[in-house]
Amino acid sequence: MGKRRDINITALRQALNERRVEVMRDDHATEEDRAPVELDESSVGRLSRMDAMQVHAMAEATHERRQAEIHRIDAALARMDAGDYGYCLSCEEKIPAKRLELDPAVPTCVTCAARAEDVHADHVHSAD
Ligand SMILES: [Zn+2]
Asked: Does a structural domain hold residue 55?
C-alpha cells in the first residue's frame, strides 16, 4: 500500500471536511427535538405527548445516523493522514477513484460492501 496518484486526495479531503460541517450543522439544527420529552400531562394532552415522543425517537435515530456519518468521515480523514486512504478496509484492494469521488468516506470496495449488505440482509431476515 502507498499513496495513490490516481486520486486527488486534496479535493477529497476538502469534500469530506465540507460534508462534516454540513452534517454537524444539520445535527445541531435538530438538537431541540432530542430534548427529553415533557412528562407534564396537565399541559400536554396524551396524543400530543405521543406525537412528541415519536418526534423525539425519530430525532434520536437521525442523530445516531449523523454521528455514524461523522465517525465514517473522521475515519476516512485518519486514513488520509496515515497514507493508506483509497484501499478497501476488508480486502485491501484499491477502491476505484469514481467510487471515492461519489462518496469520499466509503471504507470498502463494491464487492466487500455488497457482501456486508448480504450479511445485514440475512440478519434482518432471521430476525423476523
Ligand atoms: Zn474489498
From this structure: yes
Between the CA of 95 and the centroid of ligand 1 the distance, in Å, is 8
- For the four alpha carbons of 120, 125, 126 and 128, in that order, the dihedral sign comes to positive
Residue 114 Cα to ligand 1 middle (Å) = 9
CA–CA distance, 11 with 8 (Å, rounded to integer) = 5
Place of cell 467510487: 99
Ligand 1 center to 14 CA (angstroms): 24
Neighbours of ion ligand 1 (CB under 5 A): 88, 90-91, 109, 112
pLDDT tens readout for residues 15-36? 999 999 999 999 999 888 888 8
Among candidate residues 72, 126, 101, the one with its CA nearest the CA of residue 14: 101
CA 40 – CA 52 distance, rounded (Å): 12
Full-model pTM: 0.80
Residue 119 lies in a domain: yes
